User: Fold this.
Amino acid sequence: MLTKRIIPCLDVKDGRVVKGVKFLHLKDAGDPVLVAKRYEQDQADELVFLDISASAENRGIILDVVRRTAENVFMPLTVGGGIRDLADIRNLLNAGADKVSINTAAVKHPELIKEASGKFGSQCIVVAIDGKKRPQCLPVRQAGTVHSPQWEVYINGGRTPAELDAVAWAKKAERLGAGEILLTSMDADGTKNGYDLHLTKAITDAVNIPVIASGGAGKKEDFYTVLTESGADAALAASLFHYQELTIKEVKEYLKKKGVPVRC
Amino acid sequence: MIALIDYGMGNLRSVAKALEAAGAQEVKVTAHAKVIAKAQKLVLPGVGAMNEAIAELKKLKLAEVIKEHIFKKPFLGICLGLQLLFTESEEGGRTLGLGVFEGRVKRFSNKLKVPHMGWNNIRTQNSELRTQKCFALNNIPANAHFYFCHSYYVVPEDKSLIATTTEYGGEFVSSISKDNLFACQFHPEKSQSVGLRLLENFVRL
Assistant:
């Protein structure tokens, strides 16, 4: 049986893990490769590196990080952040990434999804969607009907609204050849109040490709809820695992006890 | 020397590094027929589209040398490297494969989420499809989880080739084997310790 995936995300800046990792027993907690190894031991199902380097030169450093990771860690690796074109994708895949996650460039040039999936295969093209609830569309009850909420797509690291509906964009991304969607709720992100089940369900109902839910994880119950109630195939968390408030092992053991298929 | 056949489909670095971690002394990433002919073992990896893959293999004139040596030395096929061995695929209309084995490559039903992506378990024994013992699965737990990432699966004519099956909207063939040939739909190079153990079985052969 296909298991649900638990995916830690590392924010990497200029080749170093940021967000103040506090791993014990690591000589250098800022080296992405060491952190990746630690997560591998903890039975993470995949890894995501998000490159948040500001300058173009420093973005090149991620290739070296990916190379060293692929030499030391034998698990699926997705890399996102600052990917603009086919050459960026090819370089990351050749360095050892299994998938690339594209956000802003996909919104600006949707044909990039088509070209990239045609060239490298859908299985390695992840479209990342940052969604935020549109305020004017909060659920309103009118004569017994409930208007479902809508979510705006944001680009440029959550700074710029793209004037796209998240559900419509997810469908379009699938049609263009995306193999997976990495869905982040900007409303839930950082709150630790749980994943955005509404948004996640709206997306998983609309597409027929795997969806990774992201944003809002605060306790192990949140993983259970999103994986059993929203149709998500995988759940991603960053700071929760970084700060070891929860370990991946704890989450998986809990899920297993509750009857969710996980690998542990 | 293990020849890791490079025909431009996907990154071979992970496979090479995993083989080394599994104890391989010398792994050569190559697109040369001569190196393939000289190698002690062959690995055919690959991700992406079958029609493009077969076109590349033909362009590089590698199809013939692979077919010539496939049963002469230990062979490991991974993902597309499994699918390519069969007669034909539904991918890209109708694509002819290398035809080492009779059978078809089919797409998962639209009722399922496609690609089939993530960790799923193998079955080494079952009643409907016959499965056989093989060298690659030595010391691998009967229910082990491996990492999958694919939209198509193989349907061999000869059921005695089947080494493992996996459940995804029904049972599909997740690996085949014959003598010193093993080819799998999953990615041992991405399957952490259990994957390395499988590669070790191949390296030690």
Chain A touches chain B at residues 1-5, 40, 43, 45, 67, 70-71, 74-76, 93-98, 118-124, 179-180, 208-210, 233-234, 263 (CB under 8 Å). Chain A has one domain: 5-257. Residues 5-257 of chain A form a domain with the TIM Barrel fold (CATH 3.20.20.70).
